[in-house]
Amino acid sequence: MKRPALGVLLALLLFSCRLHAQATSADSIGSFGRPNGALMRAGPLQYTLSLQKSSGQVVPLGTRDVVVSEVALGGNATWLLAESRRGTVVETSDSVWVAHADLTPLRWTSTMGRAQLGASFTRDSVYGVV
Fold first, then answer.
1. At 84, phi and psi to the nearest 5?
2. Sheet of 115-121: strands edge to edge?
3. Of 42, 51, 104, 123, which one has the greatest count of Cβ atoms within 10 A?
4. In a structure prediction context, what are the per-residue pLDDT tens digits for the chain, which is 130 residues long?
5. In this structure, is residue 16 part of a structural domain?
6. Rounded Cα–Cα distance for residues 52 and 60 (Å)
7. Would you say 62 and 87 are in contact if contact means Cβ atoms under 8 Å apart?
8. Can you tell me the distance from the alpha carbon of 48 to that of 67, in angstroms, rounded to the nearest whole number?
């Protein structure tokens, strides 16, 4: 009894692999590859935010500052991406520490007005605090 079931499972597996191989076209997108952190560069960026209405009127929405820097976190080299927004109804700031090599997220903090959030990342879990 067990042999026919195993044979059926094996046939289904081979058939499904064959269907998958036929369904994949030559111009399909390849698998996701990890980003290369070695291509990152430290430095500040500033953006002026505005809204242009259909009437041509431009409404200023504040500024967004982003600073990328190399820092140590737990003795390991990391990138710190810090963003702040000013001139908006509620000023905000976000900081995320990512692994230097592959940009894997390690820690994140955020402040919106008086609210503060934080999270630490591991391979398969996120630990947060409010």
1. -135, 150
2. 43-52, 58-73, 76-86, 92-99, 105-112, 115-121, 126-129
3. 104
4. 444 444 444 444 444 444 444 455 555 777 777 788 888 899 999 999 999 999 999 999 999 999 999 999 989 999 999 999 998 888 999 999 999 988 999 999 999 989 999 999 998 899 998 8
5. no
6. 9
7. yes
8. 15
Is the residue at 30 inside a domain?
no
pTM for this structure? 0.68
Would residue 99 count as lying in a domain?
yes
Tokens of 43: 């430095």
Domain that holds residue 119: 37-129
Return the DSSP state at 7: H
